[in-house]
What we know:
By secondary structure, this protein is an all-alpha fold. The chain has helices at 3-23, 27-32, 40-48, 56-64, 68-74, 102-120, 128-135, 144-159, 165-205, and strands spanning 85-87, 95-97.
Amino acid sequence: MNFFGHLSTINHHKWLVMQHCFKVGLYRQGLLHDLSKYSPVEFLAGVKYYQGFESPNNAERRAIGYSRAWLHHKGRNKHHLEYWTDYVVDGTHRYAGIKMPVNYVAEMLCDRIAASKTYLKGQYTDAAAYDYYMHARDVYLIHSETRALLEQWLRMLLSLIHISEPTRQAEISYAVFCLKKKKKNTQIKTKSPTHKRNSRDSNNKR
């Protein structure tokens, strides 16, 4: 049990995520990131099962067979791929990953980088987030397009391992900007025919 150790860990992690989110233009998400960790169900478990070198959720799982803190956390934080799962309406009742919005995939990347920095400390390299993901890649329940985007960004980070921090963030920021712009243009094109029909109908009524 370590009250101040856990508080320091989650504060440090949140600060790192906020810095990364701000650099890619996700200001609101950076400010609101992981606020549920300060709720009693998550915070008290973190204090009780504090490790310092890994998430206390793992220690809680080993102790009681599951993590109450994680069950609470994953349903309130949209940057976790586990939030984006649901039943498929195809008669099979199977669970599947739902396509994540781009801004939450970007926050997930910031979260993975920050978590690696928090727990690895001086041993951190830009390969850490990629390695952590690949360790459990085949068991993740994740939408194929979300998987492709996350892996693209993780490989981008890996390829920039010898590049300065500002350049790495600029590359990722540009990628996020392009994807958001592409999504916005797609939505405009989708709405345009309907908008034109409504305009014609209004003119005819006049």
